[in-house]
Amino acid sequence: QVQLRESGGGLVQAGGSLRLSCAAGRIFISSVAMGWFRQAPGKEREFVAAISRNGSTISYTDSVKGRFTISRDNAKNSVYMQMNSLKPEDTAVYYCAAGGTIAAISRLEYLYWGQGTQVTVSS
């Protein structure tokens, strides 16, 4: 069974930074695209960032452009997201996802999901 395990979440003040990690098990991430999604209380899960299988294409939702950076390390079978200049509206559970080959923004393109890590940004 494919496993995706997120880590790196926590409580941070507005303007601060966090680095999320997603370690994959029983799947080689070099064979799939990877994405990050988030879900705030009472809201639907939304796309944040994605990187294509070969790393040549990266997508971000507009609200995080210039602040978040997604990257992958196939040798470590992991994907990361550096989050800078965090805002209270970034507060959510962040999920790692794997599937497909393109940097898709739709949840439907991803087959595998992690359990999520909580990010809380205080004002």
Tell me the helix content. Answer: under 10%
Q: What is the number of beta strands?
A: 11
Average of pLDDT? 96
Structure classification: mainly beta
Main sheet summary: 7 strands, mixed
Percent in strands: over 45%
Order of helices and strands: EEEEEEEEEEE
Q: Judging from the principal axes of the Cα atoms, what is the shape? A: globular
Describe the protein in words.
Helix content is 0%, strand content 48%. The strands form 2 sheets. Strands 2, 4, 5, 6, 9, 10 and 11 form a 7-stranded mixed β-sheet that branches. A 4-stranded antiparallel β-sheet has the order 1-3-8-7, with no helix packed on it. It starts with a strand and ends with a strand. It has 123 residues and is mostly beta strands. β7 and β8 (78-83) form a beta hairpin.
Topology record:
Elements: E1 3-7, E2 10-13, E3 18-25, E4 34-39, E5 46-51, E6 58-60, E7 68-73, E8 78-83, E9 92-98, E10 112-113, E11 117-122
Parallel strand pairs: 2-11
Antiparallel strand pairs: 1-3, 3-8, 4-5, 4-9, 5-6, 7-8, 9-10, 9-11
Summarize the structure.
This protein has strands spanning 3-7, 10-13, 18-25, 34-39, 46-51, 58-60, 68-73, 78-83, 92-98, 112-113, 117-122. The chain is mainly beta and 123 residues long. The strands form two sheets. Strands 2, 4, 5, 6, 9, 10 and 11 form a seven-stranded mixed beta sheet that branches.
